[in-house]
Description:
By secondary structure, the chain is mainly alpha-helical. The protein has helices at 27-52, 84-106, 111-135, 163-181, and strands spanning 67-72, 142-146. Strands 1-2 form a two-stranded antiparallel sheet.
Amino acid sequence: MLPTVDPSVPPAPTVPSPSAASPGDSWALWFVPALVVTLMLDQATKWWLQSQVGVDGRLPADWPRWLAWHYNPGVAWSLFADWPQAVLWLTLVLVPALVWAWWRHFRPLGWAENLGFGLVLGGAVGNLVDRTLAGFGQLGGVRDFIHVDLGFWPLDPWPTFNIADSGICIGFAIIIARSVLVTAPSAATQAPQGS
């Protein structure tokens, strides 16, 4: 005998189980801390080191050789240093474009993509702060201070960089590695289409 359903009783609401959540549902757990930590660490190190720069525009001589203060009005290897305003406007366009690309295409994918984009955008905003201050005449450019020339090509010369640049490079490396390692399901594991 089949059970009867009383039409006067509303059906019980269905609650999705935690295991049914998609990988992208926890994006904030990876994206927000990566962005905030990268941005805060970048700005904190820049402001502190800037306070240590002497009247000669250098850090103290007894500091480690891998620390070297430098203002970069351009991008990597001081490219476009003669057009700092153009670099600022390009950055003002690229940061929102990266946010849109992350939100629309990468946010739902999983923890690695959100971690990577958090690092990238934290670094991009950190350097945007410097470029904006430079645009108003408060700085000479993006504040770089990590100097890693090792005496052999391609690490000699290597551009001086900062925490923001590191976040951008590591973040893009994570995103690229993830896109290479994650492959589509093989034909053998796909369900047959129709009968």
